[in-house]
């Protein structure tokens, strides 16, 4: 019994230290070198605290639309739909997203719709869209808000987040930050 008991106890303590202390310290250290030091990105919008790193639902014509969500933007239920690419329900939801996009953007051909405007991300809570997805919405927003398209394109350029270290990931735009800036721009433009 001693031949098995003492090695098992030692192994338990080794893995306890490895998994509970060392691994946790490594993950904490990595978080501290990321943007926001591993803390949530909170911005104040008209006195309300909102998380800019969690997807929010924007589907009104006067705003930049967010990426679709498989979990209806519920952070407690984050995740993908887990439906395969040939699942009929999944294909119907994609077609519904395409149809909705085309109705609100009649000047955009179906083949030019950015993929992030019709598919949900793996988390279902992606707060960002590609620069292409933001630019393709400019005409709709300019028409609804009575703004010059050039103003909106300039606003997008000011809010582009470039790839980490210039190579990791695509350039993107945070939808909440962009829409807050859009409200400010619209208010100041029409106040003149």
UniProtKB/TrEMBL annotation:
GO terms for molecular function: ATP binding; P-type potassium transmembrane transporter activity. The keyword Coiled coil does not apply. InterPro entries: KdpC. Its main location: membrane. Keywords: ATP-binding, Cell membrane, Ion transport, Membrane, Nucleotide-binding, Potassium, Potassium transport, Transmembrane, Transmembrane helix, Transport. Coiled coil: none annotated. It is a single-pass membrane protein. Signal peptide: none annotated. The chain crosses the membrane at residues 12-31. It is found in: Cell membrane. Pfam families: KdpC. GO terms for cellular component: plasma membrane. The keyword ATP-binding applies. Part of the high-affinity ATP-driven potassium transport (or Kdp) system, which catalyzes the hydrolysis of ATP coupled with the electrogenic transport of potassium into the cytoplasm. This subunit acts as a catalytic chaperone that increases the ATP-binding affinity of the ATP-hydrolyzing subunit KdpB by the formation of a transient KdpB/KdpC/ATP ternary complex. Belongs to the KdpC family. The system is composed of three essential subunits: KdpA, KdpB and KdpC. This is Potassium-transporting ATPase KdpC subunit. It comes from Hydrotalea sandarakina. The lineage of its organism: Bacteria, Pseudomonadati, Bacteroidota, Chitinophagia, Chitinophagales.
């Amino acid at each position: 019994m001693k031949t098995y008991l003492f090695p098992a106890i030692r192994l338990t303590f080794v893995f306890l230290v490895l998994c509970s202390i060392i691994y946790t310290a490594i993950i904490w250290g990595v978080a501290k070198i990321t943007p926001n030091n591993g803390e949530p990105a909170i911005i104040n919008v008209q006195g309300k605290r909102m998380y800019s790193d969690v997807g929010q639902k924007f589907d009104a014509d006067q705003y930049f639309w967010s990426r679709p969500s498989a979990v209806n933007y519920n952070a407690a239920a984050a995740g993908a739909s887990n439906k395969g690419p040939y699942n009929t329900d999944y294909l119907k939801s994609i077609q519904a997203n395409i149809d909705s996009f085309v109705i609100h953007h009649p000047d955009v051909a179906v083949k030019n719709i950015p993929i992030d405007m019709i598919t949900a991300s793996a988390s279902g809570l992606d707060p960002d869209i590609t620069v292409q997805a933001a630019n393709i919405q400019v005409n709709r927003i300019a028409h609804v808000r009575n703004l010059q398209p050039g103003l909106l394109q300039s606003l997008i350029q000011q809010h582009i987040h470039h790839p980490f270290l210039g190579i990791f990931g695509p350039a993107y735009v945070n939808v909440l930050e962009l829409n807050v800036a859009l409200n400010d721009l619209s208010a100041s433009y029409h106040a003149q």
